[in-house]
Amino acid sequence: MSDVVDNPFFARLWTAMSSREPESLRRLRRENLAGLTGRVLEVGAGTGTNFEFYPATVSEVVAVEPERRLAEHARKAASGAAVPVVVSTDTVEQFADAEPFDAVVCSLVLCSVDNPDDVVRQLYSALRPGGELRYLEHVASAGARARLQRVADATVWPRLLGNCHTHRHTEDTITGAGFRVTAARRQWTFPAWVPVPVAEFAIGVARRP
Ligand SMILES: C[S@@+](CC[C@H](N)C(=O)[O-])C[C@H]1O[C@@H](n2cnc3c(N)ncnc32)[C@H](O)[C@@H]1O
């Protein structure tokens, strides 16, 4: 279990990357948050890139971001957001709240936690019955790209990119925790022939029954 996330290199890199996101990714972020209502827990908020996309029907966002340099950026983004956002520097594993949430948001984060099965089970428990998990995650591909992902994960990729793992079967992790997926699709963010390990995304809604 992660107690501390302290990654100055990745914090600099992600701050630069998240300030120059392509419109295609911004569209996916907007889609992932559309129609949310009530109290929301956002896991690993990074620089707070999602905050501007929360609809006015959200009453509060509690965002956890344990990398303190990124949390600083997230707090700035929170102060300009249209809905109330509080940022905690807990890891998701440390985070606990007495009140259940109406929704949990994960974007580009289940690749980076040490044990996604445990984390998704914890998120299930943090939701009220009927509450929803919104996810936007890059996932394990098939064929030659799967081989490329396995090599990336066994070598430099997680070290350079804040513990990011490219070959994770995140949709299986979500259903394995007891969620019922009510909407889901895959989206390529690069043409399929471009040889990068992170290209295929899963976006969806999963409910706690
Ligand atoms: C690739 S970034 C994505 C940031 C943000 N979710 C987004 O969509 O832009 C992954 C984030 O997960 C955070 N993270 C890593 N391990 C975590 C943990 N155990 N608990 C909470 N956040 C974590 C990192 O600090 C980083 O901000």
UniProtKB/TrEMBL annotation:
SUPFAM superfamilies: S-adenosyl-L-methionine-dependent methyltransferases. It comes from the Bacteria. CDD domains: AdoMet_MTases. This is Methyltransferase type 11.
